[in-house]
Amino acid sequence: MTTTAHTSPATVSNIGALIGTGVVAAVTASAATMAVAAAGHAAGISLDISGAPIPVTGFGVLTAVFSLIGVVIAAVLSRFARRPQRTFIRTTVVLTVLSLVPDVIVDAGTATKALLMLTHLVAAAIMIPALARRLAA
């Protein structure tokens, strides 16, 4: 006996909309974190960690990677969570707070640490609401 998974067109459409929104938000968040890093650097804040400089584009690349992981989390929760929006918001807020821990302990100046944390918060402020709006309450 075999079983076939039946996915309704509404489910596929919702996932597609979620992914589309997520990709646009990821691009926006990546650009925003690069802008924050560039502005901080222009204001005299070092982008060096342990003596090695972080390129401004590195902020964008890492933001894109982790933002797309967030899209995957949202897609999985939309399929399996009883309350996807609430679960997503709680999960991503906790992950955002945890993402600040390495910034606190990294070998860098105080201003650099603050700038790194700001980029995490900027990305989260863009990604979390954009994806949460697409999830069922």
Automatic annotation (TrEMBL):
InterPro entries per the UniProt record, alphabetical: DUF6069 (IPR045713)
Keywords: Membrane, Transmembrane, Transmembrane helix
Keyword Membrane: yes
TM region positions: 12-39, 59-81, 88-108, 114-132
Coiled coil stretches, renumbered: none
KW Manganese (keyword) present: no
Protein name: Cell envelope biogenesis protein OmpA
Species for this entry: Plantactinospora alkalitolerans
